[in-house]
Amino acid sequence: TGKVTWTYVNQGPIAAGASLGDNSVVFADLDGRVVALDKSSGVKLWKRRFNREISGMPLVMGGTAYVMAGERELVALSLSDGHTLWQQSLESFARDITMNGQSGVATDGQNIYVGLADGHLYALNPSGGVAWQAALNPPMRNFKDIDAQVVAAGGSLYTVGYYGLLHKLGAGGGRIWQADVASGTAPLVANGTVYVSDTDGALTAFSNDSGRQLWRNELNGSVLSSASDFAGYVVV
Question: What is the C-alpha to C-alpha distance for residues 70 and 15, in angstroms, rounded to an integer?
Fold first, then answer.
């Protein structure tokens, strides 16, 4: 019907989307709060506070909520009450507050993936151990940030950032191909194609097999959202 079911007024600004569990909604804010709400009523279940900015979307998987606190700390919280299950410090030369934001936490159902502001992609297992890391930033580029959400699809990983490259990686972090495009939004993988909204306000399509650019549509220079696949159309 489009009617508002419930509203929760947060104490600080929210920079990323919420993640859904079976019965809960989990989000984080720029003041370092992680909040879990009851999905049906919007009643607050628990709240945690960290002394670091959280600008990326949390990940809910099973009974755990994963969140990046600042640019170096991945924290696993119990979905039932918010207590810390483990935390893992990641090596990064980025400052605690990145200029463009965070990529958030993603998963392929096995590993957990986070992109950092220094251009590194980390893969961790659900218990917090580092499975592998890959340095994706070209050394002479001005920007290093991996700000777009890492996308796991078809056994591959896709990552893009302000450093100006779209990467397709194998499950172990090996590069399959790369393409020149700068973006802060997650790529869409659909119909054998990878669609990216770039920093110049254009939507670009690449072959999923080879990384070859198929077409580029400039849409009036606006800042675009991530592309979505809807009824055979690409929507931004």
Answer: 13
